[in-house]
Amino acid sequence: MNLQTHICDDLWLAIQSTYTVGNYCGAILDAMHCLSNMLRDKTGADGDGVALVGQALGGDSPRLRINKLQTETEKSEQRGIEDILRGMYRAIRNPRSHEQIEDTQETADAIIHFANYLMGIIRGAEEPFVLSKFMTRVLDPDFVRSQRYAELLVEAIPTNKRLDTLISVYREKLNGDIYNVGLVVRALLGRLTEDQRKQYLAVVSDEISTVTDEKELRCNLHLMPPIYWQQLQEISRMRVENRVIRAIKEGQSINGRCQRGALATWAREHFAYFTSKHQVGIVLVDKLETDDRSESLYVVEGFFQQLLMTVGATHQIARCVRAISAMVRQGNEVARSALLQNVQALPEDWQKEFARELKDLTNENNPAAYLPFDSAPFLSSDFPIHEDDIPF
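Below the sequence we write its predicted structure tokens.
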């Protein structure tokens, strides 16, 4: 009998070197080793021998199911295969691992044939995690948009499949809801080892080093937690940061809607981690001071908080304050509302600058707000809203 033609290719490759030279005991051990590897690959378990079988097939919710486990017969079949596999290790592998046993070809053929049979059952068993099924759930129109839901989804991913799964999710980002995909990406990133995270960031770096489509760039910015931005390859970061700065320069907002420069709004939280963040600040200040209202409103509406991240020099702070104050003096309700919404979070030096600049517009008896640094009244609650100044 030609054993090779009666067993699967993987098993033959595992035993070929020992079997063909007549080392039948070694061939049996190689067959058991092959079976163990299959159990680990299918389930993500890291045990060995009887413990590995228990991890893979044991318990009320086994990692590997040979059937649906819905009837008593099916449950009994699952336990039976589990017991057989335990017996294979106890009665066949372990004695040969600890003692010198002279096996005949007939014995080896019988055991290897049976190992092949068991491997067929394992190969056809339902895995606890199937990537295609996971991707269906990520792209599910009924995906619950919450971090908790995403965490529950990724809990089912075996440790040894997390990186491959994350890369697959990343590559499918344009086919699903970007906010749902983002929740899954962040949940997975938090479960990677440092080395796995580096491998994933290398994949992202490679893509953003050449991508030109703005939708893809927006998706990449959304999916990249800002704290990891500086771990991307420098050349890739420089390229994207330059593209974002260009978007800011082109930015316009009309009637409360961003008309140009939308790409930069997807990078707002990343500004603090940009290598070129001071250059971003310079561009933002320059746009605040422009006579083109659509450009100054683009900054006030979309990047007020980011001014604090990117503008640090005293003279730049003074320029920001003067420019925004001038808009308030001109009766721009959008600028005034943005200032009042953010004034409580402004650093003390910013608050003092605004207090001085707008002192004459402040009604101490009926202020619009109080400044935190000294509880001083700020502006006036009486401010007429003009139709063309209604914010979106």
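The radius of gyration is 32 Å.
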